[in-house]
Amino acid sequence: MRNTPRIVTEMSQAYSFSRRAWMLGAAQGGVGLLLAGRMAWLSVAQNERYTMLSESNRVNMTLLPPRRGWIVDRHGVPIANNRTDFRVDIIPDRLRDKERVLPLLGRILQLPPEEVERIAIDLEHAAGFQPVQVAENLDWERFAAVSVRLPELPGVAPTRGFARSYPAGAAVAHLTGYVGVPNAEQYKKTRDPLLVTPGFKLGKDGLEKMLETELRGVAGAKRVEVTARGKLVAELATKPDVPGKTARLTIDVGLQEYAARRLGTNSGSVVVIDCRTGEMLAMVSMPAYDPNSFSDGISHLEWQMLSDDDHVPLMNKVTQGLYPPGSTVKPMNGLALMNAGVDPMTRVNCSGAMRLGTSVFHCHKKSGHGPLDLKNAIMQSCDIYFYEMARRVGYNAIAPVARTLGLGQKFDLPFSTQRYGTVPDPAWKLKKYKHDWTVADSLNASIGQGYVLANPLQLAVMAARLASGRALQPSILADHVHRDSPALAIDSEHLARVRDAMFGVINQGGTGGAAKLLIPGVAIAGKTGTAQVRRITMAERRSGVLKNGQLPFKMRDHALFIGFAPADNPRYALAVVLEHNGHTVRNLDTPMIGRDIMTYMLDRERALKSLAEVEPTWGGDIRTRMAATAETYRKAQSAPPAAIATKTDAIVPSDAPAVANATDLANATQEALTAPGASVAEDDSRDRQP
Question: What is the rounded CA–CA span in Å between residue 12 and residue 9?
Fold first, then answer.
């Protein structure tokens, strides 16, 4: 059946066209509304965002590293401050055409070829976002020459700011630590853009690290208008930085420098404490590194030189060094004996040796001292007296007094590297070694050997507590001084007897006569000590004990001294510890060093004059000797090119492998000296007599 054809009229055509036109118009209107809405959204709601994006095409904003807070001494003298610095860095991510830029930059800054090579090596090892230092401490002419040619130097970042400065150099290295460029790991933890801002440095070690929050400050920001090629058009508004807070220490930086210089060529440490308040006036560990060099960025070669030095300049010996305290504990042991009921007038006959079972314990004086009471035993540092008394009362009667005077104690100080030593007793040995305490252990401990270990700070605290009769707490931050320390729970008459014996050590024919002050009417009281670091066999004793001068450096005895002055009204206490000194050079031994440092506190001009007479014989001052050592080391090395590259890893001096190795060696030595059958005897300020 055929379909009837559809008849299209003019009216139906008009209707169909109108409907299509309406639908098309509606669609066009909808699109128009969408576009209008989008335009409104972009121009109103997103106005701020796109304004900033537009602005960023012509305006660059960079963070300004905050000025770091100063570290000052008790008198306001700067220990760490800031100096104006013009520097140039390279941002690896932004560097283009390195082969062209580096030679051009070298010519503009007049850099030697080896320095350009160092920059190239640093760039190869740097994270893309981590600034690589080209040069700092630039003069204005060279800095300006780079600034005007920035369009030709993509990735180069000249910066005007402040650099850290340590006026006393190595003398304060282990006190302040240093600042350095953040490493890649530190940035990845926080993604803080300040950490990759050229010129910014944070605390890496010492007080700089521990006080980072207070010292850092708040970054500022600088806005500049540039052309499409990056050429500077104008400087816009700048948000100033907020400087960090100043940290005031209890340290006297003049004394700190003097003590560091007076240690001479020794590997050792000095701590000086105010007997009235417990404030630390000096905390010196030498030799040391120059914190200015570390802050600028040292090379791998310089790090290796410091690591190879057998005097371990990377170690803070005040807090990380542990030593047998030797005879410096005999005054403290005297207090313990009297507290245990020993009559100080009771005499013990010293024949030069004491037999215990199959072992023989020797006195440093081979022929013996004869009959001695407590005072004379301390004055002459007689080992036999303390052996016998320790045998009678047991070390359990001595250990509590040692802890009362500060040995084995932890102190509330802003240092992360404190090692606390050991005050042994039977319970401690059973727990650590699963062995019972023996009489031989008591004898060794009675002369500050065996298991007894202390750091120089603890020895200084012991001296200060003996002098003051109070439980002084050491402090180094001026706003954290413990001024109301309680009296020690020790009989005042016993303290007076021990102080009198320490006066006799120096002023009445004792072992420390070389420490006698040359100031009329002022006396120092003290105690010398020697800590043996090797076991002496019976065969060696029969043939004649080798003198320290005949031994390699690491086999020589440690030398120690504690003291306080004025003896009749103590104001200052100190401890001097010299590693492997062996009492081999008189003016570099502990008694004269202790004497001169105490003299500085009481008669500065006299002390400086004394130092000026002897310092030239040691090779000059600290900077002169360090420069000579570095030059000798460089000449002796055939270093590969990578050795001149800047050290950028996270290892800092206090965590250095060289420090760990020195600690392991000291621990091994201690284990050998406490092995079954081992016995030791010390010789104080003299070599052993054959």
Answer: 5
Distance CA 279, CA 12 (A): 108
Q: Which amino acid is at 2?
A: R
Q: What is the CATH number of domain 253-673?
A: 3.40.710.10
Phi-psi region of 121 (alpha: psi -120 to 50; beta: other; left: phi over 0): alpha
| Cα gap 655→651, rounded to integer Å | 6
Evaluate if residue 133 carries a pLDDT over 60.
yes
For residues 528 and 328, is the Cβ–Cβ distance under 8 A?
A: yes
Let me know: does 562 contact 526? Beta carbons within 8 Å.
yes
Give the separation between CA 631 and CA 569, rounded to whole angstroms. Answer: 48
Lowest mean pLDDT of 1-5, 216-220, 350-354, 556-560, name the range. 1-5
Distance CA 398, CA 90 (A): 62
Eight-state DSSP code of residue 381: T
**Interatomic CA distance for residues 205 and 183, integer angstroms:** 14
CB-based contact 209:416 (threshold 8 Å) = yes
Asked whether the predicted pLDDT for residue 677 surpasses 60, the reply is no
Residue with tokens 């006297």: 252
Query: Distance between CA 197 and CA 186 in Å, rounded?
Result: 13
Q: Is 461 exposed, middle or buried (0-12, 13-18, 19+ CB in 10 A)?
A: buried
**Which ranges of 227-276 does DSSP label H, i.e. alpha helix?**
253-262
In 3D space, the residue among 42, 610, 686, 598 whose CA is nearest the CA of residue 327 turns out to be 686
Dist CA 241 CA 67 (whole Å): 7
Q: Which residues are catalytic?
A: 327
Which regions of 166-267 does DSSP assign to beta strands (E)? 178-180, 202-205, 220-226, 232-239, 247-248
Average pLDDT, integer, range 299-312: 93
Task: Tell which residue, 295, 158, 131, has the closest CA to residue 224.
Answer: 158
Q: Which two tokens stand for residue 250?
A: 């209890």
- Of 243, 296, 247, 245, nearest to 66 by C-alpha is 243
Report pLDDT for 398: 97
Binned at pLDDT 50, 70 and 90, residue 685 comes out as very low
Cis peptide before 287 (omega within 30 of 0): yes
User: What is this structure's pTM?
Assistant: 0.85
CATH 3.90.1310.10 fits 59-248, yes or no: yes
Q: Give me the residue spans of the domains in the chain.
A: 59-248, 253-673
pLDDT in tens, 227-250: 655 555 666 678 888 999 999 999
Q: How many residues does the chain have?
A: 690
SS3 59: strand
- The pLDDT assigned to 641 comes to 64
Does 309 score more than 70 pLDDT?
A: yes
